[in-house]
Amino acid sequence: GAGVSQSPSNKVTEKGKDVELRCDPISGHTALYWYRQSLGQGLEFLIYFQGNSAPDKSGLPSDRFSAERTGGSVSTLTIQRTQQEDSAVYLCASSLATNYRTDTQYFGPGTRLTVL
Amino acid sequence: AQSVTQLDSQVPVFEEAPVELRCNYSSSVSVYLFWYVQYPNQGLQLLLKYLSGSTLVKSINGFEAEFNKSQTSFHLRKPSVHISDTAEYFCAVFNNAGNMLTFGGGTRLMVKP
Which residues in chain B touch residue A48, judged by CB atoms under 8 angstroms apart? Predict the structure, then answer.
């Protein structure tokens, strides 16, 4: 079956512009996660959705970052007024969430964001 | 707060040699432990996980990891590596007090012929 998909695969933007990153989870997966993978920082948790609600937004690095999920499926991560330090690969993962602590997370291929 | 330390950022090894990728974590509560692998130009995928029960867990491609509570470690081992094992390996921890999977910095395993 289809895995987690993310779009775009690559995004180059100018500093100060807004960007939207999209994630399509595996059908039937109720939990969805966003991570950021950058050089020198490893993999960093950003936000987690259970259905359409986000119980934990503590990982979002600043108020320029926001995320939403509609219909318990697609999620978008929005970065406003992008900065060069936002350059990274943004990864999305989903899981069945029968128990979100122990579930296997299935990762998408990521969106590589470059802020010039 | 929990943290995960992977002591080696790169591990070069010859084909058919044994390998150990080290992972230590800090947590004051019980944990669930994971190893994820990222092959070149591919997404992260689960390699193996420890949830409860036997402290030795194995993957289908010959890797194994042992949960050592006293040493707060979850080292990954393989007795004989293949070229195809070249990848980046991430150790991750989920504890009962948190809502997030915390990843280590990753170890790049480079298998040479």
Answer: 99-100
